[in-house]
Amino acid sequence: MTTLMQRMREELVRRNYAATTIHSYLKAVEHFHARVDTPLDEVGPDDLRSYHAYLLETRKLAVNTVVLNICALRFLYIKVLKRRDMKEDLPYPKERLRLPVILSPDEVAQLIGAARNLYHRTMLMTLYSTGLRRAELCRLKVADVDSKRMMLRVEQGKGGIDREVPLSKKLLGALREYYRWMRPEIYLFPGTVNHSRADKPITEKIVWQAVHDATIRAGIKKRVTPHTLRHCFATHLLESGADLREHSDDAWPFGSGGNHSLPASLAAPPASHGKPS
Fold first, then answer.
1. How far apart are CA 140 and CA 175, in angstroms?
2. pTM over 0.85, yes/no
3. Phi first, then psi: what are they for 227, rounded to 5°?
4. Is the same domain home to 214 and 127?
5. Co-location of 164 and 255 in the same domain
6. pLDDT tens by residue, 194-230
């Protein structure tokens, strides 16, 4: 790591940025540096404009991804190098609002039922029934499951904020079945090191792959991502007349009864749990 990159990292740390944000910002600047092939403190407006266009036109990155890159570069030049004049050379791209992809309740049931094994199935159930973001799912710990209070603790979510979400009886039952099979120690969904299980968080890529594989196996033609399940979580609650501000058990997907109970196609345990991957 160069001296300038170390300065940037220290500036991020002292401002108490989240670890994931620090990692993303440093990676974004490293990619920019490799592309422009110019000392970072000698970069000019032309370099920034060309790189900005490259991200959108050539790499065809999503607007949110480009915004992250712009935020990283703004932090470097404005906060670290104190070149406030460069703010005008780093505009945020205009974002066109699009409706998210929403699956029907039956499609969600098909998706979860098509999971490769119990490891993936429990991930998908947890995403849908709690509305967690994929990064939050990755960092879940066994101790975050509070069965006495029927709550799931989410530490350092978006914006570095802790919160709790209701834990339904059906999801708790699924988590207990999964726990007896996997026997995780610290992290609820442990990752791997050199193809061997390790007590460390899984990567977000594993969650993406679990959703992608289940989508194909279920024969769903829509573009489904882990965040799709978060959208479905909220949309299905609204469509069923639930108040999102209320944290009652019956108001959440996979609740203990009524119209929010676990779909019948998911109630029975899978024929084969398979191996986690």
1. 12
2. no
3. -70, -20
4. yes
5. yes
6. 887 888 899 999 999 999 999 999 999 999 999 999 9
